Amino acid sequence: MAERTLKAFFVEISWWLTNIASAKENAVNRPSVAAIVWALSLGAGLTGPAAAQEGAGAAPEPSEAFSNEPWTPGTIRDPWEGWNRKVYALNNAIDRAFAEPFARTYQRITPSPVRSGIRNWVNNLEAPVIFANDLLQLEPKRAGVTALRFGINSTIGILGLFDPAKSIGLERHSEDFGQTLGRYGARTGPYLMLPLLGPSSVRDAFGSIVDIGLDPLTYAQFEGDTAFRITRGVAGVVTARTDSLESVANLRATSPDPYVALRSAYAQSRASLIRNGQPTAADLPDFGDPLPDAAGEAIGPTESPLQ
Amino acid sequence: MAFAGAALASTLFVQSAHADAATEAFVQTNAQNVLNSLAQTSTVEQRRAHFAGLMEKFADMPTVAGFVLGRYARQARTDAALYKDWVATFKEYGLAVYEAQLDQYRGRAIKVLRSTDLEKNGRKRSLVRTEISQQSGAPLRVDWDLQQYPGGSWKVIDVALKFDETSISLATQQQAEFLSQLDKNGGDVRKLLESVKAQTATMRAMIKR
């Protein structure tokens, strides 16, 4: 019951998100007022089960809500490519001028254990949002892992600087509200390159805003809370950029069009995160049947490869 | 608390993937041979020829060559000569890509972790999960995606790099890059072919030794 209500609720929100952002002008259906109210109230963290219940009957099923266009998992539409490429160029310029050199310096002057301590600390502070999304996805086991990790790492792990939970088999996983929407059938909507923040989608950008609302640190008041929030933000950005130094350099060096390579990597990684890394046939690329080539010769293996 | 965590962890992470001994052995043997071939101290030409021969047995590049053209594949196949040229060009490009990507792992040990049997459009697929050891840091995690052929044999049609719970497929990435080029050049496969040839040459030049 809870799953059905949640699903109807999220499907309605994501339908609204996907369609309002759609560049297509052939909108056959219009988002219901209820959907807009839900989305807004959810953003403000005010939703109650009653509101979801009320409109559940009106929520379209994913199949009809999203049947306007064919879609392959791991791909993303990019109707705003011209704009996105401009933002990408800007981000790249800023990255090359500031972020990348800073990350290289940081990597050079700090010992690896210090960097991993800071990484663990940043990761640990994400636990409440991950936990909330684990629950919204009705994944009690994963929520349990997140809660145990947070408890162990915040205490034995000295305020999250170490990750002893991992050494007893409690592996970290990520969740965010964009993934939660995806878990209930929402597609990404158009690709969106955000200034300074990088690749996103309409669904995931909306999700990021909800995640801020889900984070207790957004509301926590304590001595030096502003400094704490800034430190956490800076540490998060520096860690993320340092960890991606090699892959970004590799992407820039080997791809004829790094913009497209990044877009594909983004779409694919989001798709696999939503299925929690579990392989499913639906998400595998479809290679079709090995086709005879135009000359009529069979293409494909002619001998058993197991020899 | 730690004990409770360990107990919970042990119940959470036992996976019931159906192991396929044949594909696991196939990947273990062939992928290891490929990595070893890159470590050969022969001439560049000899090493490349050996590598190409191994890849021919291991991967089904003609199928991937069709896949990466996406919605343009059907039309491209109507021009027999062009399509044949495309498959040959893509094979060369694929070899250069694999060589460039795998070169840093030459001679390293590959370990099969497990495999998952799947079915897509009535065709059997097997996803073989492996780890390649690195000089420092955590091992590289690679998933090999194999497809079964009517005779019962298997070949690799895709590789995916894994980080935590994310997975990035090389074939999907290449398709995205080629489709973007084709969309921009009005679907001209000939133009794409020329640009892919140029890229292959650039990559070849980058791999020294």
The greatest interface between two protein chains, and residues involved on each side, is: A-B, 56 and 69 residues
The major sheet of chain B is characterized as: 5 strands, antiparallel
| Fraction of helical residues of chain B | 40-55%
Strand tally of chain A: 2
Order of helices and strands of chain B: HHHHHHEEEEEHH
- Strand % of chain B is 15-25%
Unreliable stretches covering 5 or more consecutive residues of chain A? 20-70, 291-307
List the helices and strands and how they pair.
The complex is a heterodimer of chains A (307) and B (209).
Chain A: H1 2-20, H2 33-43, H3 49-56, H4 62-65, H5 81-109, H6 112-125, H7 127-136, H8 140-155, H9 164-167, H10 177-183, E1 191-194, E2 198-201, H11 202-214, H12 216-219, H13 225-243, H14 245-254, H15 258-274
Antiparallel strand pairs in A: 1-2
Helix pairs in contact in A: 1-2, 1-3, 5-13, 6-13, 7-8, 10-11, 10-15
Chain B: H1 2-12, H2 21-38, H3 44-58, H4 61-67, H5 73-77, H6 80-102, E1 110-120, E2 123-132, E3 140-148, E4 154-163, E5 166-169, H7 170-184, H8 189-206
Helix pairs in contact in B: 2-3, 4-6, 6-8
Q: Explain this structure to me?
A:
The complex is a heterodimer of chains A (307) and B (209). Chain A is mainly alpha-helical and 307 residues long. Chain A has helices at residues 2-20, 33-43, 49-56, 62-65, 81-109, 112-125, 127-136, 140-155, 164-167, 177-183, 202-214, 216-219, 225-243, 245-254, 258-274; strands spanning 191-194, 198-201. In chain A, a hairpin with a 3-residue loop joins strand 1 (191-194) and strand 2. Chain B is built from eight helices and five strands, in the order H-H-H-H-H-H-E-E-E-E-E-H-H. Helix content of chain B is 54%, strand content 21%. In chain B, strands 1-2-3-4-5 form a five-stranded antiparallel sheet. Residues 6-18 of chain B have low confidence and may be disordered. The radius of gyration of chain B is 19 Å and the shape is globular. Chain B starts with a helix and ends with a helix. In chain B, strand 4 (154-163) and strand 5 form a beta hairpin. At the A-B interface, helix 8 and helix 15 of A face helix 1, helix 2, helix 4, helix 6 and strand 1 of B.
